[in-house]
Each structure stands twice: as C-alpha cells, then as structure tokens.
Design goal:
Length: 209
C-alpha cells in the first residue's frame, strides 16, 4: 500500500497534478489507510515515511504525521466503497473550482465520473467542515471539485482513482480552453442518457466468413 503511494506520488508530480507538498494520496485495505505524510513533496516519498492510520483516525504506524487532509480521506472511506483517494491542486480543476459551482457536461467522458462534477463549498483545509462538504459533493459521483482549492477523485484502486483525477483535470482544461474560444456547447440529459445506453450495449462486429 505504501509503495503505491510512492509510485503514484511520483507520477502525480511528473504529470503536473500536484506542486511541491500540495496534494495527497491514500489507499485503504480493511480498516487501515496508508496516507502520504504532511510536509513532504509527493516525489520524495519512501514507503517507511508514509503513515498508516485506521479508519477512525488513529495513527497505527509511522514517524511522520499524516497529511492534514486526512480527515477528508477518512470521511470518504467511511461513506463510500472507495479503496483509494487522490487529492490534487491541479491547475485547470482549480480554475473551474474557483469560478463555477459545477463542471458541466462538456464531453461525454464526464459520465466516467458519474456526471457533471459538483464543486464542494469552500472551507478551511483539513477541517471536518471541508470533509463534510466534499462528502456531500461526491454523492453519486467518483470525483468532486473543491472551491478555491482543488479536486478529489476516488476509486476501487489507486490506479482507478488516479486516472479519474487525470480525466477530471483534462475535462476542466477542455472546458476552460473552450470558454476562451466561444461559449461551450453542453451535452443535454438526453444525449448523456444515450451515451450511457451505448456503453451498456457496445456494437459487435460479426466475424467475416
Ligand atoms: Zn489541498
């Protein structure tokens, strides 16, 4: 679990999803959660530097303090089936989170996140209030934006949560860039429903005889 944090911490820095010590990652197994430590850049982690806490928030292992955003991670684990949480301050997600109340359906891939992505109202970082706001914004979704702060994505594995964080950043970049060209056209509920139906019944190609 801790090696996963090191691997994906490096990838998050390489891909520009986080800067320096901003952003944090966690992964859950049973009632234990390995989380990135406070105050350490995500590309400088080693497994033994990553603390382990239980879902109730008690430190189980590690010399360093868990990330200050750990209450948010734990709130997600207590209320969703997630097994990994990725929190970033990626640029375009933060732009959208600072200007809008929701990332609208500019591209059908938003369905991979459960639909248009809500912006959780602002609260001070690391607080129970922020954790509750994010938890509410995640209802029926696998990602949320955090007003004037960043983004969070969840998944059944670290890979899935990480890919969703990348997708959210890409969707926000498309929206921001499209807004600079003109007024972005948005997909209707009917168009999104048609996409969902299409993904349930993918086309099949008969084998040539
Ligand atoms: Zn943050």
């Amino acid at each position: 679990m801790r090696e996963l944090l090191c691997e994906y911490g490096r990838r998050a820095v390489e891909l520009g999803l986080v800067l320096g010590t901003s952003g944090n990652l966690s992964v859950r197994r049973d009632d234990l959660v390995a989380v990135t430590p406070a105050g350490l850049a995500l590309d400088r982690l080693t497994p033994e530097r990553c603390p382990v806490v239980d879902v109730g928030g008690h430190l189980v292992e590690g010399d360093l303090q868990p990330s200050s955003e750990t209450p948010m991670h734990l709130a997600v684990y207590r209320t969703t089936p997630a097994r990994a949480v990725v929190h970033t301050h990626s640029t375009f997600a933060t732009v959208v989170a600072s200007t809008m109340r929701e990332l609208p359906a500019i591209h059908y891939n938003v369905l991979q996140l459960g639909g248009p992505v809500r912006v959780a109202p602002y609260a001070t970082y690391g607080t129970a209030e922020l954790a509750a706001n994010v938890q509410a914004a995640l209802e029926g979704r696998t990602a949320a934006l955090m007003a004037n702060h960043g983004a969070v994505a969840i998944g059944e594995s670290m890979e899935e949560a990480f890919e969703r964080a990348r997708l959210l950043e890409w969707l926000c970049e498309v929206y921001v860039r499209a807004s600079g060209v003109g007024t972005p056209a948005l997909l209707t509920e009917a168009q999104l429903a048609a996409v969902a139906e299409r993904s349930r019944t993918p086309p099949t190609f008969p084998r040539r005889s």
